[in-house]
Write a structure and sequence with these properties.
The protein is of the alpha+beta class. It folds into 2 domains: 6-152, Aminotransferase class 4, branched-chain amino acid transferase, N-terminal domain (D-amino Acid Aminotransferase, Chain A, domain 1, 2-Layer Sandwich); 163-325, D-amino Acid Aminotransferase, subunit A, domain 2 (D-amino Acid Aminotransferase, Chain A, domain 2, Alpha-Beta Barrel), CATH 3.20.10. The protein is 22% helix and 28% strand. The chain has helices spanning 47-50, 74-87, 95-107, 185-200, 245-256, 311-324, and strands spanning 19-25, 28-29, 33-35, 54-56, 59-63, 69-72, 121-130, 143-152, 163-168, 205-208, 224-229, 232-236, 260-264, 276-281, 285-294, 299-302, 335-338. Strands 1, 2, 3, 4, 5, 6, 7, 8 and 17 form a 9-stranded antiparallel sheet that branches. Strands 9, 10, 11, 12, 13, 14, 15 and 16 form an 8-stranded mixed sheet that branches. α5 links the parallel β12 and β13. The structure holds pyridoxal-5'-phosphate (PLP). Pyridoxal-5'-phosphate binds next to α5.
Amino acid sequence: MTAIEWSTLPFGYMKTNYNVRAYFREGEWSKLEISDSEYIPIHMAATALHYGQQAFEGLKAYMGKDGKIRLFRWEENAKRMQDSANGILMAVPPMELFKDAIVTAVKLNKEFVPPYGTGASLYIRPLLIGNGPRVGVKPADEYMLLVFVSPVGPYFKEGFNPVSIQIAHDSDRAAPLGTGRYKVGGNYAASLMAGERAHKEGFASALFLDAREKKYIDEAGPANFFAIKGKTYITPLSESILPSITNKSLMTLAEDMGLTVERRKIPVEELAEFDEVGACGTAAVISPIRRIVDPATGEEFFYCKDGKAGEVSTQLYKKLLGIQYGDEPDTHGWITFVE
Ligand SMILES: *Cc1c(COP(=O)(O)O)cnc(C)c1O
């Protein structure tokens, strides 16, 4: 293996040694299998390929100063994958199988866990697919759970530097009673058009509005949205956004810091009243937002006046990252060590 340049890693795929797989057949989950292949055998009529029976997760393993590898709130990812599975009628992986799969995948690829202090981490990608054949529209009777890992750098190449985002008026990533609250690939397919246009026009991401009224903020492509107004942390309440574990953790940390947390509808006009705004998710933790452009009205909202992330966002970012890397005490029991 050639040496990896940890500090310049992109957020992307890198081949590692092994991945792990379990199969659901005849009503039962198999034992974990270890594979060194990057490919999966799949039936050409698999429901994942035709009818979108597919869900995924994303979490990270962090190397602490003490040389120990930490997982952050893996139980939340396991539960969310179970919700996604139930939401699109797939076999539900048991908690213990999910844990065993991610821990095994990390242990088998220990040399790919980036060292402490490089800003990089080991991204863990669990994937659940319907791989039983169907031609008529029906849930499959066979499923595969797969976990691969990849060392990654920050998601936005700007890192913890403020980004610009663009409101999307002419497409929705999810319908009000659709699959927005499940982590399924179909939502991403629906978001690609607006996301790619945003990238082409120089923005880091698209910002989606509620699909019903187009009045309220939903979420920012692959990340939840939050705002700081005085001593309040505000994040959208919506049935079509993905319940982000990062956002949930930031809400807890905001309360610890003495802020009030509000989960409610956020009308677009309110963007003019916020002191700080940001996007949050496992990949980037927090991406501070410096500018939001509304192409429908030509309006622009500016934050980070001095070019830097706001004080509260910075504090939250440091606190959460500190817990993940083991520099801050784990007062909420969020960390699991990989022994
Ligand atoms: C995964 C994801 C997020 C972030 O969730 P985390 O649990 O914080 O990583 C936000 N929005 C969407 C659409 C997602 O798929």
